[in-house]
Amino acid sequence: MRLFIFIILLFSSISGVSQSIVSGKVLDNKNNPIEGANVYLDGTYDGSTTNDKGEFSFITDASGENTLKVSFLSFETLSLTKEVSELNNLQIELREDINALDTVVISAGTFSAGDNSKISVLKPLDVVTTASALGDFVGALQTLPGTTTVAEDGRLFVRGGEAEETQIFIDGIRVFTPYVPTTNNTPTRGRYSPFLFDGITFSTGGYSAEYGQALSSVLLLNTIEEPNQEKTDIGIMSVGAALGHTEKWESSSLSVNGAYINLAPYIALFPDRNHWIKPFQGGSGEAVFRKNLSQGLLKMYSAFEFSSFDLIQEDINFPEGIHNKLKNKNLYFNSSYKGVLNDNWSVFGGLSYTYNYSKFEVIDDKIDDKENSFHAKFKLKHNFSSRFKLNIGAEYFSTNFKENYDNPVINEVSYGFKNNITAVYSEADIFFSKNLALKAGLRLEYSDLFKELTLSPRMSLAYKTSAKSQISLAYGNFYQNPNNNILKFNQDLDAESTRHYILNYQLNNDGKIFRAEAYYKQYDDLIKFDTEYADFSSNYSNSGTAYAKGIDLFWRDNKSINNLDYWISYSYLDSERNYKNYPATATPNFVNTHNLSVVTKYWIENWKSQVGMSYGFASGRTYTNPNIEGFLNQKTKSYNSLSLNWSYLISQQKILYFSVNNVLGIKNINGYQYADVPDSNGNYARRALRPAADQFFFVGFFWTISENGTDNQLDNL
Amino acid sequence: MLKTKHYILMIVTLLSLSIHSQSNYEKGMEKAFSFWELGDINAAEQLFERIANAEPTEWLPNYYIAQINSLKSWEEKDATIIKAQLDKAQSYLDIAKSISKDNPEIMVLQAHIYTNWVVFDGAFYGMKYGATISELYENAFKIDPENPRVVFSKADWAYGSAQYFGQDTTPYCKEIKESLELFANFKPVSKFAPNWGLERAVQVLNECK
């Protein structure tokens, strides 16, 4: 009986004789009440929701020390541990969650594609659906502001910088030879298939201390982490064929791609300005292997490519033309590991190896180039809190370049160099609030070749001016060793350097993006030499200087008109240089003062088609006319090109694709070549440098075969 | 003697505590569903959150938080909030997945969340998730071909695609019709296990005709 009473007593005590009231008020950092916050005792069912005054009150059976939790969308969840009896009349302030989407983003200088960034201006698919790009990721980026139109080259020229000043990275690891070799009147393309990447970040200045050896720009490509299904892709094109396959296993996957391009049939149908002995042909193979490990992801990427051509090109000084022959072999291997060590530490390690072999024959000269390069990188990231993150890293670049030159009149010579660079960097990301963020870093590099130590501070600051807009500032110091064409002749030099100053404004309003950026770039220590061409006899120095300043504007809208997505880019660039063998300061021939790009994509529902248009305008480029006084003293007429493309979804898995570049057949001129000697009237004759072909047509059929039968690359354009 | 008494006392106490806890879960879940039925979806969501937090071995409260956020995103116009809701749905569904592996109900809800992303921004998420959605339905069907939500959702997705490409939709309409029968005979494994979808299936079937 006594036991019975005891049990009853025990029960009643458990079911809550001692109830307490938990109450208080929830406010944000500006003392405004938060309505609808979830307030509860951790591990119990006891809780309540705050009212419009931010107040809450509930009764609990819990006693002793307990943890009160307060959570609300886009605020950091707050935990408060106290005796239950003390959990009343509380005044609770929630901190904004800086991981929330409306947090300020450091965006000066940067364009992103993908969902890895809150400021994406492009989607990965834009790369393949931009009319003028012809499926080349570099071509699509050329429709963004900050790039200039050097139509015969095809590489990225950013803000008054030369093409070599832009470095490309795959999964954070450097690509040493990113472009396919071409003739000097045909634009090159990026070597890698755009379908392998799901994130692209293009920075036109002021980038992180993580990236070095780039004076103007970095392009970061991330390979797809997890392919969504097993499939086989078949592509049949007017210029060749491609085949790809993806296989998935429990925790790993493998994608392989192969392509063969031969321009012979195309050139037979549409002859161009070159006299081809053997038109361009190339083959490539790529493989990506991904393996999910318990704490991270391992990716391995490798690509092999060969290409060759043989032709005779027109030249004003050689009536019979110049014979040009090229064979290129390129191997690229890249492997990276990204993982977490614990809640606060993450780790990244990677390395790449490049082998590039080119054999040129120009008239009687035979030149063999061999490049062996590798890059190893290791970095650690520590999150002290969601508001303070520290990155530290170390990397090593090594390039071994050898050239062999053979000519009937001289003895065969071999020369080359080793360019090894060690670097360490550290960078902090600090969020003072949801509206103000700072990124500050320092990079230290040591060049083995020059025995030179350089220190580059980098900094950017972003401030949110309203719910949809923000301004950013960036400053940075950048160093880069001179390129192979100089280093192969002289190694007693220093690194070239630039300083960037950037002011950026961005407005992002529901499908509409506006960006405006003003910048100033100062170049120092540029290489100068005193001969017509850089060679062994030249005297070299680091006495060159240059500047570039300008304004870049970007507008994109995919909301205002149904089914229409368009963007407009405009760049104003003012740049002058005194480098290389320039006798005076002048605007170089790769600078256009005005650049305009308009890209539209229109989806026609009834036709299951996307029709794309892109228009490019660039004001004239400088050239030297020896018939009048001065250096780089005249400008070509402006450049215009209108391109169209049409993708037609035959069924869920089959796409037919057409594109035409320069539909209007505008005769663009890239520059002029003048005769070495004047004619009998004392006049130097000239020849216009035109693209190999004014227009280019492309037809392709792409077929995806998958188990589910519902996938294709363009299924939701 | 004293010892035995103590044992009995302890056993009774433990028993009563565990019964207590069991009924707390049931009471909590019932209350959350009643909030939901009365249209107070936020109160339901918050109670599910408390239950999920207190019962780390139950996948259902996490599942319903995910479902509520997925449904909420249909009504929402503000892109920032839609993204936040779908991210919240995903994070709770991830917890549900970690508690209950290879669960066809969770796979269906995962496919629905991805479908909401596709609806939100077809140009971007269509490419990213299109194939994954199909694969999720295939896998869920392999595990439980009799589950009406699996059969219906899979057929609904295929029906939508076929309709879009002007292909024959009859086989999918037939599958949707068959799912009605599965809905009629479906017995949820527990009181709170998922048991929704019939209304939507009837609605889609009416469009089919």
From TrEMBL, chain A:
| InterPro entries listed in its UniProt record | Beta-barrel_TonB, Beta-barrel_TonB_sf, CarboxyPept-like_regulatory, Plug_dom, Plug_dom_sf, TonB-dep_rcpt-like
Q: Name one Pfam family in it.
A: TonB_dep_Rec_b-barrel
Outline the extent of the TonB-dependent receptor-like beta-barrel domain.
323-663
- Tell me where in this chain the TonB-dependent receptor plug domain is found: 136-213
Q: In terms of domain of life, where is this protein from?
A: Bacteria
Q: Where in the cell is it found?
A: Cell outer membrane
Signal sequence span is 1-20
Query: What one GO molecular function would you report for this record?
Result: siderophore uptake transmembrane transporter activity
According to Swiss-Prot or TrEMBL, what is its membrane topology? Answer: Multi-pass membrane protein
Give the UniProt record's GO annotations in the biological process aspect: siderophore transmembrane transport
Give UniProt keywords alphabetically. Cell outer membrane, Membrane, Receptor, Signal, TonB box, Transmembrane, Transmembrane beta strand, Transport
GO cellular component, alphabetical, reads: cell outer membrane
**Keyword field contains Transmembrane:** yes
Record family assignment: Belongs to the TonB-dependent receptor family.
Name of the protein: TonB-dependent receptor
In its UniProt entry, the species of origin is given as Formosa maritima
From TrEMBL, chain B:
Instruction: Extract the SUPFAM superfamilies matched here.
Output: TPR-like
Q: Which UniProt keywords apply?
A: Signal
Q: Which domain of life is it from?
A: Bacteria
Annotated signal sequence range:
1-21
Instruction: State whether keyword Signal applies.
Output: yes
The protein's name is Tetratricopeptide repeat protein
